[in-house]
Design goal:
Elements: H1 2-24, E1 40-45, H2 49-52, H3 58-70, E2 77-82, H4 103-115, E3 123-125, E4 133-134, E5 140-141, H5 144-147, H6 154-159, E6 160-165, E7 171-183, E8 186-192, H7 199-209, E9 218-222, E10 239-240, E11 243-248, E12 251-254, E13 258-259, H8 266-274, E14 280-285, E15 290-297, E16 303-310, E17 328-333, E18 339-345, H9 347-350, E19 360-361, E20 368-371
Parallel strand pairs: 1-2, 2-3, 8-9, 9-14, 14-16
Antiparallel strand pairs: 1-17, 4-5, 6-7, 7-8, 10-13, 11-12, 15-16, 17-18, 18-19, 18-20
Helix pairs in contact: 3-4, 7-8
Length: about 375
Amino acid sequence: MKKRKFFKYVTLALLTIGVVSNAFSQEPYQKPELEQKGSWSVIMVPDLQNYVKRGVNQPILDLMTAWIEDNIDSLNIKMVICVGDLVEQEKKIIRDYDGDQSSQRQWEAVAHAFGRLDGKVPYITATGNHDYSIDREGNRSSRFSEFFTVDKNWMNQKTLVQNSTNEAGESTLENSAYELKDLNGKDYLFMTIEYAPRDTVMAWAKRIAGMEQYKNHRIILTTHNYLNEKDEYTSGEVKWLLWEPYSVNNMIQKSPAIKLPKSNNGRQIWEKLVKPSSNIEMVLCGHISGEGYRMDKNAAGKSVHQILFDAQSMGGGHRYGNGGDGWLRILEFYPDGKTVKVKTFSPLFGISPTTREHAWKKDSRNEFTLQFN
């Protein structure tokens, strides 16, 4: 009996050592770095509304842009692109169940976070549906241009080459284009168009893409609403709502959805703008929680890579979560001018040795390689 007990204890001890050994032999944490010498990168920032609507979440957004600032040189970051929904409520002064920050403080928080990048790297902040207020006819307005001007970031001013007007007829960055030349021998135009772009904006963007001076550029287009999590183009009438002047049981009331006149959904953006343009080769979007990707050929036979990334429901959910666990996308453009490696990383998890094992999403929806023609 004693021998049996002895061997039993020895076996248990060896099994325990094996488990501990396997735990410590997990793949070590890898700090974000370029995979190829000579690469450059774009950082894709998902919807930010749930970071700014609660004061306790705002430091996570500060951490995200601080990490970007800290890695401008090591990752050779040439552009930062946010896919829209910078705030949760565009005009709000009452605290309710869906956030404890007024719209003023939300706008201030997101502008402050991007302020870390001012003068250091150009960035695009697209507009989403939450960045607009509408009236009962669907006419939109936004405070976006108060907080994101061309003079805010000298690097934006330096690279801005085209812009159009918002619905009020004002020149803003809601519809604009930025030129970066000779990135491994290729010229790039980074273009952004408003949420559910109006027909006039679609015509403007198509004309820009067709200009002789950009015919050999590779255009990367950013717009808020384009793909869904099933890798399909968004479709149907584009609608938004307005906040009613009533709060019931700590809930600000919302109107029924109101159609936005002369607006375009994802499928219409593809059919009217992206497909006919020979040089739009990538589209980045948000709006729908989750990840998405599809590749289609444009009218010139070139591959168009279309990427959805919206982490707003991660980290506890859309309404009461922490904003999205700090997830970012790193798009590394290889020196061959054709290959792009897409990776998904969280500075929030990566900052602590306790959580670094969770800092990367390695599944095929979050880490993949694509090829331009």
